[in-house]
Design brief:
Elements (H helix, E strand, L loop, with lengths): L16 H13 L12 E5 L2 E4 L4 E4 L2 H4 L8 H13 L11 H13 L6 E6 L2 H16 L3 E5 L8 H6 L17 E4 L14 H17 L4 E6 L15 H11 L3 E5 L23 E4 L10 E6 H4 L15 H16 L2 H22 L3 E7 L2 E6 L9 H13 L2 E2 L1 E3 L5 E4 L7 H17 L2
Parallel strand pairs: 3-13, 5-6, 5-7, 7-8, 8-9
Antiparallel strand pairs: 1-2, 2-3, 4-10, 9-10, 11-12, 12-15, 14-15
């Protein structure tokens, strides 16, 4: 299938009549627990464009929540998926083996930070990766406790939902939660009490106190951290926090697990976000961009840790599905061949000055932050830091009407986040930013 014309085209209102009719069918057939950001039904997608069933060309600033970093129909992904599906779609790697699983593991062992011996385990979803990283950490250390951070998001399973900070919609009504999960403050510079310059050290002091006096360092298997927080609001920790965290975990025999499910694989302008400060975690969780749109996740870690689990202790019927592995090899090939790490930096260079101008000139924009192609605006009530979730929701809705797919996130629901495909062209990105800027200014 040819890549759609890379320009915004509105042929109907958004959503159009065909999408509206399909949405009516959805409402009678699909559980209400599945929310929807924009009720349009997709016909095809590629580059930085989503084409809906009414023929509208929408600018994609979401990438399926950072999944389609190489585009939604990247040729290398499509070709490898087609070839693999013709060979076989499934055998279960724990029953009979196939080379794609090993190829993906070798690629991740090579690409992740650190020159120590590594091994990789493949799964299906990001939550599975995080949950299995905790299992591995507990097996390797023989300790039960896990420490996570304020504003964190790690998934929707029982354990990862417990690890996630925000109650609504991720946790409300789903308790009781998993035991032995403890939470420490995350240095959120914009909202840190007192001086943000001291946020890193003060957050580390608080974490040390919680681990040493409330939990017991000798009981903590792992600290799990997003190097840049995703659903919590694209919060970039201040310099020094991640190195301080790494030093603390080493001093107490605690494993550091980097949840790079949203940040990993070129999104932030390095292959992995932890590389911005030279951090080498004990384990890294990947998903989203890894599969190029197919469901695939991974835990990559120090070989001796990964081998702490006995045979049969890791796996899953669909873990490392061969078609998903083929897609991943296509996605990784595209990321490296097209130097999408550098492209993410170029996107930041193009977009950040425009976003920062909004911060300087629009009283509803409290903060602008992010790295690479993972950028955000935090919306507040003018002349305060009080979150304005209704303003964020209104801006996103206006962008949708104007043909731009924009997402809201944040603990307080007041952050507009931008996750364009790394393959988006400059003209299309500028058009999307034009729409966003117009709507921010109209509500300022």
């Amino acid at each position: 299938m040819d890549t759609p014309d890379q320009r915004r085209i509105l042929r109907t209102a958004i959503p159009g009549p065909m999408s509206t009719e399909l949405h009516r069918r959805r409402e009678t057939s699909v559980a209400d627990g599945f929310g929807v950001t924009l009720p349009v039904f997709v016909d095809r997608a590629g580059g930085g464009i989503i084409v809906d069933v009414d023929g509208n060309h929408l600018i994609d600033l979401a990438s399926g929540i950072a999944v389609t970093s190489v585009g939604a129909s990247a040729p290398a992904v499509v070709d490898r998926v087609r070839t693999q599906a013709q060979r076989f779609t499934h055998t279960c790697f724990m029953v009979t083996e196939y080379d794609g699983f090993v190829d993906v593991a070798e690629a991740l062992n090579r690409l992740t930070p650190g020159d120590h011996p590594k091994k990789t385990a493949l799964f299906t979803t990001g939550a599975e990766a995080v949950e299995n990283a905790v299992k591995i950490a507990r097996a390797a250390t023989r300790r039960p406790a896990v420490v996570v951070l304020d504003h964190a998001y790690h998934g929707r399973t029982l354990l990862t939902m417990t690890m996630t900070a925000k109650n609504v919609p991720y946790k409300d009504g789903f308790g009781p939660y998993a035991p032995e999960v403890y939470r420490a403050p995350f240095p959120y510079p914009y909202r840190w009490p007192g001086c943000s310059r001291h946020a890193a050290e003060e957050a580390l002091d608080r974490l040390r106190d919680i681990v040493l006096t409330q939990v017991g360092a000798d009981r903590v298997a792992a600290i799990v951290v997003e190097p840049i927080q995703g659903e919590g609001g694209f919060i970039v920790p201040p310099p020094g926090y991640l190195p301080g965290l790494r030093e603390f975990t080493r001093a107490h025999g605690i494993l550091l697990v980097a949840d790079e499910i949203q940040t990993g694989l070129a999104r932030t302008g390095d292959m992995f976000a932890c590389e911005h400060e030279g951090i080498v975690p004990d384990m890294i969780c990947t998903a989203k961009a890894l599969g190029g749109g197919m469901p695939l996740s991974a835990v990559t870690g120090r070989a001796e840790l990964m081998d702490a689990v006995a045979a049969g202790g890791l796996g899953g019927t669909y873990a490392g599905n061969p078609v998903a592995c083929a897609a991943a090899l296509g996605a990784l090939e595209t990321i490296e061949r097209e130097n999408l790490v550098q492209r993410a930096r170029a996107i930041e260079t193009l977009a950040m000055p425009r976003l920062d101008d909004l911060r300087k000139t629009c009283p509803i924009v409290g903060d602008v932050r992010g790295r690479g192609a993972m950028l955000a605006l935090e919306l507040v009530r003018p002349d305060t830091t009080e979150p304005a979730p209704e303003v964020a929701k209104a801006i996103a809705a206006r962008c949708h009407t104007d043909g731009v797919v924009a997402l809201v996130c944040g603990t307080y629901g007041n952050v507009i986040r931008m996750l364009p495909p790394l393959t988006i062209d400059d003209a299309l990105l500028q058009d999307g930013l034009d729409v966003l800027e117009t709507n921010v200014r109209s509500l300022s």
